[in-house]
C-alpha cells in the first residue's frame, strides 16, 4: 500500500490545465480516467473498469482516505470521504468530480485557471 508518502509525489498541474481547457464531457472523461488510475495504483491492480465497485475491488477505509486525498491534491477540489460510498465506481465518482470542479470553478474563477501560470 502506498499511504503517507504517496500524496507528496502527486503533481496535478498538468491535470488542472487539462481540466480548465476541457469541455464538460472531456472533463468527466479525464476525471474518470484519473479515478481509475489512482485506484489502480492504490490497490496495486493493473486495470480498473469504469463500472467496477470500489469496495468489491478491495478498497478499505484507509485506502478510501488515500484515494480521496490523492484526488483532492490532483484536482484542488474538496471531496468529502463519503463521496466514495455515494459514488462507488470510477464512472459515478468521475461524474461527481466533474460537477464539483465546475461548481468550484464558477464560484472561484481561479480554480479553472489554477496551475496555468
Write the layout of secondary structure elements.
Layout: H1 13-21, H2 24-43, H3 61-75, H4 83-86, H5 90-107, H6 109-113
Helix pairs in contact: 1-2, 2-3, 2-5
GO molecular function: phosphopantetheine binding
Pfam family, one: PP-binding
Keywords: Phosphopantetheine, Phosphoprotein
Structural class: mainly alpha
Give the CATH superfamily.
ACP-like
CATH architecture: Orthogonal Bundle
Count of discrete domains? 1
Strand residue content:
under 5%
Which fold name corresponds to the CATH topology?
Answer: Non-ribosomal Peptide Synthetase Peptidyl Carrier Protein, Chain A
Q: Could you list the spans in which at least 5 consecutive residues all have pLDDT below 50?
A: 1-8
CA-atom Rg in angstroms: 13 Å
Overview of this structure, please?
This protein is mostly helical and 117 residues long. The chain has a single domain (4-103), classed as Non-ribosomal Peptide Synthetase Peptidyl Carrier Protein, Chain A, CATH 1.10.1200.10. It contains six helices and no strands. The chain has helices at residues 13-21, 24-43, 61-75, 83-86, 90-107, 109-113. It is globular and about 35 Å long. Residues 1-8 have low confidence and may be disordered.
Task: Give a quick rundown of the structure.
The protein is mainly alpha-helical and 117 residues long. Helix content is 61%, strand content 0%.
Amino acid at each position: 500500500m502506498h499511504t503517507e508518502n504517496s500524496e507528496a509525489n502527486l503533481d496535478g498541474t498538468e491535470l488542472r490545465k487539462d481540466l480548465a481547457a476541457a469541455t464538460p464531457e472531456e472533463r468527466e472523461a479525464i476525471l474518470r480516467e484519473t479515478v481509475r488510475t489512482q485506484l489502480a495504483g492504490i490497490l496495486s491492480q493493473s486495470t480498473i473498469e469504469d463500472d467496477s465497485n470500489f469496495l468489491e475491488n478491495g478498497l478499505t477505509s484507509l485506502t478510501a482516505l488515500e484515494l480521496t486525498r490523492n484526488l483532492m491534491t490532483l484536482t484542488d477540489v474538496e471531496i468529502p470521504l463519503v463521496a466514495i460510498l455515494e459514488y462507488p465506481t470510477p464512472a459515478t465518482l468521475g461524474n461527481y468530480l466533474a460537477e464539483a470542479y465546475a461548481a468550484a470553478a464558477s464560484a472561484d474563477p481561479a480554480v479553472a485557471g489554477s496551475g496555468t501560470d
